[in-house]
Amino acid sequence: MGEKGRVGRLRVARVEADAPVLLRELVRRIIACRSCPRLVRHREAVADNPPKRYHGQRYWARPLPGFGDPRARVLVVGLAPAAHGGNRTGRMFTGDRSGDWLFRALYDAGFANRPLSEHPDDGLTLRGAYITATARCAPPANKPTPLEMKRCQPFLLEELRLLHEVRVIVALGKIGWDAYLRARRECKLGVPRPLPKFGHGALATMPDGLVLLGTYHPSQQNTFTGKLTRTMLAAVFSRAATLAR
Question: Can you give the pTM of this predicted structure?
Answer without folding.
Answer: 0.90
